[in-house]
Amino acid sequence: MFNIKFVVLCAIVLLCQCEGKQLSRCELVRQLRQNGFPENKMRDWVCLVESESSRRTDIIGKPNYDGSRDYGLFQINDRYWCSTTNKPGKDCNVTCKQLVTDNISKAATCAKKIYQRHGFNAWYGWKNKCQGKPLPDISSCKK
């Protein structure tokens, strides 16, 4: 028989070993600036990330209706944009695993590519929670 304390301890250890973290709003703004996101769209990007992943870098979404999944801070879909194998591929030429780390550079590059092709409408989180609505206040986040 399994000892329930042992199982709980193992679960805690596994959770603590995850690479992801939740960024504060200003940490997110700083990261977006470092990755070349335009200042005039910064509040939209912050709203998108907050709506899609709650600023968590390690989020992998539940399967979508078509069986695909969304990965990382920007919730980038594996159907078109990232490869679920160990070999980078699809339109962003990355693995999905590369999108769920604290280093957001590959996810940022991919998100900007998606935006160039489809705008913010590529993300349901932005359409449902940001479009035409008050955007997050980032005035306290230093440049």
UniProtKB/TrEMBL annotation:
It catalyses: Hydrolysis of (1->4)-beta-linkages between N-acetylmuramic acid and N-acetyl-D-glucosamine residues in a peptidoglycan and between N-acetyl-D-glucosamine residues in chitodextrins. Residues 1-20 form the signal peptide. Pfam families: Lys (PF00062). Its EC number is 3.2.1.17. PROSITE patterns: GLYCOSYL_HYDROL_F22_1, GLYCOSYL_HYDROL_F22_2. Keywords: Antimicrobial, Bacteriolytic enzyme, Disulfide bond, Glycosidase, Hydrolase, Signal. Gene3D superfamilies: 1.10.530.10. SUPFAM superfamilies: Lysozyme-like. InterPro entries: Glyco_hydro_22, Glyco_hydro_22_CS, Glyco_hydro_22_lys, Lysozyme-like_dom_sf. This is Lysozyme. It comes from Papilio xuthus (Asian swallowtail butterfly). The lineage of its organism: Eukaryota, Metazoa, Ecdysozoa, Arthropoda, Hexapoda.
